[in-house]
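User: Reviewer 2 asked us to show a designed sequence for the structure in our supplementary figure. I'm pasting the structure tokens here. Could you produce the per-position amino acids so we can include them in the response letter?
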């Protein structure tokens, strides 16, 4: 995944990110389903990916600041 796509994802709201993940899984050939707030995509291999979506702003972040080495990202509304 490139940095531009990651930055776009970081700026999404939780519903937008869930919809984005759903579409990406479909594009990869999965048939994702949503149940009880979780997104499931059954495949051939026994892999489990769990992610926690955390929102700290009332509105989507507009600015992403990165450390010089690019390993630390912080978001800002302004």
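Assistant: Here is a per-position design you can include in the supplement:
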């Amino acid at each position: 995944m490139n940095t531009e796509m990651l930055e776009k994802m970081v700026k999404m709201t939780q519903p937008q990110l869930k919809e984005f993940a759903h579409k990406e899984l479909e594009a990869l050939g999965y048939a994702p389903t949503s149940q009880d707030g979780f997104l499931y995509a059954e495949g051939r291999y026994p892999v489990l990916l769990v992610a926690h979506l955390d929102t700290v702003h009332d509105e989507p972040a507009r600015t992403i600041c990165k450390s010089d080495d690019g390993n630390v990202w912080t978001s800002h509304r302004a």
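For the response letter, you might also mention the following. The helical segments are 3-10, 14-27. The chain has a mean pLDDT of 80.
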